[in-house]
Amino acid sequence: MTLPRQALQAPVSDSAAAPAVDLICDADRIFDRDGLRARIDARAVEIRDPGKLRNEVVRLLREANALGREAIAEAFAAAPFAARPLTRSYSYLTDGLVTTALHVAMTHLHPLANPTSGERISVIAVGGYGRGEMAPFSDVDLLFLTPYKITAWAESVIESMLYILWDLKLKVGHSSRTIRDCIRLGTSDFTIRTALLEHRYLAGDEPLAQNLHRRLQNDLFSQGTREFVQAKLEEREKRHLKQGQRYMVEPNVKEGKGGLRDLQSLFWIAKYVHQVEDTADLVKVGVFRPNEYERFIRAEEFLWAVRAHMHLVTNRATEQLTFDLQVDVASRMGYEDRAGRRAVEIFMQEYFRHATAVGDLTRIFLSKLEAMHVKPEPLLERIFRRKRKVKPEYMVINNRLGVVDPETFLNDKLNILRLFEEGLRTGMLIHPDAMRLVAANLDLIDDEMRNNKEAQQIFMGLLLRHGNPERALRRMNELGVLSSFIPEFEPIVAMMQFNMYHSYTVDEHIIQCIRNLAELEKGDLVESLPVASGILKKGVNRKVLYVALLLHDIAKGRPEDHSILGAQIARKVAPRLGLNKADSETVEWLVRYHLLMSDMAQKRDIADPRTVRDFAKAVQTVKRLDLLTVLTVCDIRGVGPNVWNNWKAALLRGLYRQTRRAMENGMEDLNRENRGTEAKKALRDALPDWPRSVLKTETGRHYPPYWQGLHVTAHVDFAGMLREMDEANDPNKIIIRLFPDVDRDATRACIVMHDHPGIFARLAGALALVGANVVDARSYTTKDGYVTDAYWLQDAEGKPYEAARLPRLAQMIEKTLRGEVVARDALKSRDKIKKREKAFDVPTHITFDNEGSDIYTIIEVDTRDRPGLLYDLARTLSANNVYIANAVIATFGEQVVDTFYVKDMFGLKYYSESKQRSLEAKLRRAIEEGAERADR
Q1: What is the tally of structural domains in the chain?
Q2: DSSP secondary structure, 593-632, as one string
Q3: How far apart are CA 925 and CA 724, in angstroms?
Q4: pTM for the full model?
Q5: CB-count burial class (<10 Å; 0-12, 13-18, 19+) for 97
Q6: Which of 135, 170, 463, 496 could disulfide-link to 546, CB 3.0 to 4.6 Å?
Q7: CA 927, CA 936: separation in Å to the nearest integer?
Q8: Are residues 505 and 643 in the same domain?
Q9: Percent of the chain at pLDDT above 90?
Q10: Is 593:562 a contact under the CB 8 Å cutoff?
Q11: Model pLDDT, residue 7
Q12: Can you give the residue range of the structural domain that contains 149?
């Protein structure tokens, strides 16, 4: 796109097909065409057999290709941002290979002494290759042009040439057409028309190529402008829908939003509409300003450099910037760790900023295009739209909000904020010219404006008054207004969090959270989020909630704890947004503890009264509980499209309801005996037909934690299974029941058998063998020697198991429990970590907590997730005579927190520091040994 366009304006001679200018290194190092042809011509004299000659040519070209690629890669490693010289260099190398292959086919394999007028052929590069832009493993798109219907001689030349190129392992896309074919097919197929738009003569019959160029200009490119533009825009929209948003953390560099294809589409349209030959010409025709053109060049250079490094790392055409590639590319481009951030995160932040620039430039271009080519609207639509009144200082341009007088607009700096307010009030998009005006005058947003009460009111109005704050915030963020008005926001703009848990950049995550809150307020999520919706319906301090969400992750990417530092930042920012002292303190508290409820619900046993009691003490008031609950829901839902599920919803609902009940009725309401009495009564009510003696046996055989930790539905299931065990009176009997738990998006596995050591570990091994993800596990022994284990399971997609898969699941559990399958041996070949996930470095943290439960020691293992991890940990604990009462498993992408509630063999907590250190060392060894297996 930004290469010299003379080759596109008119076919040029073979000797100038690929101009040796601005290459990444010396042209002869890339491809010595004259020297190589001389060698081939000499060998052709010696080798008379066509097949042997072709093999010799392939050998020589393969050697030349390898040397050329090596020279380019070496030069690129020394100048890792030199994208434009690199793309030209690969085009130059490819030109040499293609033209030499044609030379051999025409001169030595299929020579013609006296060709007829129909026995002519011209080789044309099209598409990206025609543009002269090639990544290391780009396709080689060729058009074989003949004057009339293809002859036997031309067919032989093309075939021989293609076989040579295929033997070189080039990915060749080719077509054989006449000029008439090109016009006809280009008229009906916009993909073909686009490819022809960037044709470039390589070799062969030059007058034929010149004729094609003239005919394309006169008969194809001079008509159907509107249809071509429409086709390209529709193609772009479909591509964006398929690839996802610009802020997805594993972007497609070529096809994704803000990627290279967007820049290419922009140029294709410009070339078609304005007949420009270079993007620099867009400044001349008034589409871009000089500074915008500079942004275009910087984005293009960066994206091409990234794409080239991806190809070189993988040794193939790779377009998805996966996590493992991000680390490699960041290293190759010279990024380094700094200030608590990994090099890869700094690199990806720059990537997303360039992607944002591509989006801005596309909007500017399309608005100019629309102004020049927009269709007159039907009369009724124009009449209807006139009714949409805007304030006098604004005007409507193609149904977008524009500024009447830029100079008057800028005289009052508050108009920068008022523009977004008017956009939300009218429901209109802001015209790109108005956005350009704002972006060019961000220096007006100074401390005086930030501390202006009216400015504060306008900003808070954007959050609170119009029901669609997401739209204003996203546009303000992209234009730099948000980080100018709140300078503390600037470091997190386009900041990526290098993990598999977060799907968005930090700033986009915050905007997604605010969108979730707005949807909750509208009542759109009552069915799926009844508790949060109910809290909002009763009424909360909206100002506090919105500001807390806006600031909750503002300190991400710093060496300090982002919650603590974020609270300190909130203490300064909240008053600057017009909040009073009490509200500012509440915002500060919410930011400081925005992870508290999520951690308590997902990493602790919410059935343990101590968990609820400690959480209630931390929260202190129902007002804070309500605010924190809504914030937590919005925060988790804003992490990514598939993070929120019924399991998390059930945990948060349970924690909220128990905490609120304790706050309203007193902490004694959490007493285990009270809960046990209620649970036993519920079981009796659920089993009205059971004999009183059998019910008495059932309610008397369990210890208090059993009644506290399970829902009545599980109590009913276990009661039936235990009754069956009593009647069978078989010490070897194992009963396994699998139940769908729809409310929690999981499958509940209930197992009853006679108690003996190591059952928990065996079960964990069995479930690892079938690929089940354990999200919660509870193990209870009865007073009469049985063990009742309940596991909540999800498949690899985070969903309950389908009914058809349950028999195999039950079969594997039973075989493992009986010792017929040894999980440790069976898992050795299965617990592998996927390649794209190996880039993550998750340090292991192991803590012992004797305060979080009245009965158990809580061992929390925070480490890298992998298949078989829970089994390795459970087996290690079991081997050291640790009794596991229950385990809570919280997975955050590649990170997992396995929390075990344990006692020692005497039923006591682990108070001894020496025992804790010894057990920690053994757990670490199990983690490391398993990690070594997984990395092989």
Answers
A1: 6
A2: TTTHHHHHHHHS-TTSHHHHHHHHHHH-SHHHHHHHHHHH
A3: 41
A4: 0.85
A5: buried
A6: 463
A7: 15
A8: yes
A9: 60
A10: no
A11: 35
A12: 6-223
